[in-house]
Amino acid sequence: MCSLETFKIDLKGMKTDEQCLEFDVDGDFFKTLNTSEVNDGALHVSVSIRKATGFYELLFHTEGTVTVPCDICLEDMEQPIVTDNRLVAKLGIATNTDDDDVVIVDENEGILDTAWLIYEFIALAIPIKHVHAPGKCNRVMTQKLEELSGADLSGKEEADKIDPRWEALLKLKK
């Protein structure tokens, strides 16, 4: 199992005004977080932290691939991910803000746990619809889906067929 302790950043303990951290995210990371969307992955995350007056600016750059199920055939597929995210961390007592880009860190601890933040950045970078490239889906599954649903999942649409209701309206127009 992956230790999530490595993803904790001690903001109060920063010795310089700028710091860069590197994380490698793999399948153990997703299993430890017990995520359902992502099965596996191999990503590299670079975090650049800049200390300013009253806040910390964190820039996340994530690059790699994740393994997600195909929406059509349900087999695993690799989805490339490249994302850049910005986050502002402030030390304070309150834990709730109205701004999604601002995180309040308990000033007594001064430690920001970035594990779940990194997962959210990755999950938001996955397209809503994730399908294999045309012709790469499991043929047995797509044939069964076509057979049961009556739909053509091969990517070809029947543009020539017109709904009979629209056809009747077209006759009225003429």
**H/E series, N to C?**
EEHEEEEEHHH
Structural class: alpha+beta
Strand elements, count: 7
Instruction: Give me the number of helical elements.
Output: 4
Poorly predicted spans: none
Strand coverage percent: 35-45%
Mean pLDDT, to the nearest integer, reads: 85
End-to-end distance: 70 Å
In helices, the fraction of residues equals 10-25%
> In one word, what is the shape?
elongated
Main beta-sheet annotation: 5 strands, mixed
**Widest sheet: strand order?**
2-3-4-5-6
| Rg, nearest Å | 24 Å
Tell me what the structure shows.
By secondary structure, the chain is α+β, with helices and mostly antiparallel strands. Helices cover 22% and strands 37% of the residues. It has four helices and seven strands. It has helices at residues 27-33, 115-125, 139-149, 164-173; strands at residues 8-10, 18-26, 40-52, 55-69, 76-92, 102-106, 111-113. The protein has a five-stranded mixed β-sheet. A hairpin with a 6-residue loop joins strand 4 (55-69) and strand 5 (76-92).
Briefly characterize the structure.
This protein has four helices and seven strands. It has 174 residues and is α+β, with helices and mostly antiparallel strands.
List its traits.
174 residues; alpha+beta; five-stranded mixed sheet; two-stranded antiparallel ribbon; 4 helices; 7 strands; 22% helix; elongated
Write the layout of secondary structure elements.
Layout: E1 8-10, E2 18-26, H1 27-33, E3 40-52, E4 55-69, E5 76-92, E6 102-106, E7 111-113, H2 115-125, H3 139-149, H4 164-173
Parallel strand pairs: 5-6
Antiparallel strand pairs: 1-7, 2-3, 3-4, 4-5
